[in-house]
Amino acid sequence: MILYVDMGNSFTKVYYGSDLITLETSNIENEINMLDNCAFLLEGAIISSVSINHTSTIYNYIKNRFNIEPLIVNKDMNFSVKYPENNELGSDLLALVEGAYKRSKSFIGISAGTATVFILVKDGIFMGASIAPGMRISFDALINKASLLNDIEMNGEFSLLSNNTIECLRSGAINGNVFLIDGFIEAIKKEYMEDFNVYITGGLSTLIEERLKSKVIVDKDLIKDGLEVLYELNGGDHL
Question: Which among 92, 182, 221, 237 is annotated as catalytic?
């Protein structure tokens, strides 16, 4: 069994077999013992992390608890996709690209999380990316900066225009991100003159899926599948 770890800014997802454990990244020191039951026939591990301050916690835990040295996703690994020498794509996005590449050799990959990231791969070559503030972080920043606004949930009913403050905020955050995503997809397809497959993943992808005009494939397994590929390409011997 292999542990596939996707450590984000907010949550850390640990995949083993057909199971998934989700930990709160900022509290991972207290929650990491939830992985004790993953020890059965553990052969290896690979970690994708965008949280520098917490990577060592899960790395050392796996190494000491299971006597396995995990692979850490980094830009110097072997990849299926060709990148420029100055590649600075984050480890989670490197995994996302590998996962999407299993499905299509040319695609637009979108991560809808803390940031909203757009990635284009054409014929197996990384063409570039664009990074915008994510829906949740924009929503929270507005609430934190406006003293008259209370902490409210993004989930809930709303219309395009409203006279209710909470619904206005939801509409701005969600529709604003929907229009952003639709706009980027349309612009990329127009500039490169190709009708690319579009894959979207991330914690907020299901919140916007039905509101998008563009045809997209919501795939929660993109990063996990990409970690599997990277493990195999960089020393994994479980096959």
Answer: 92
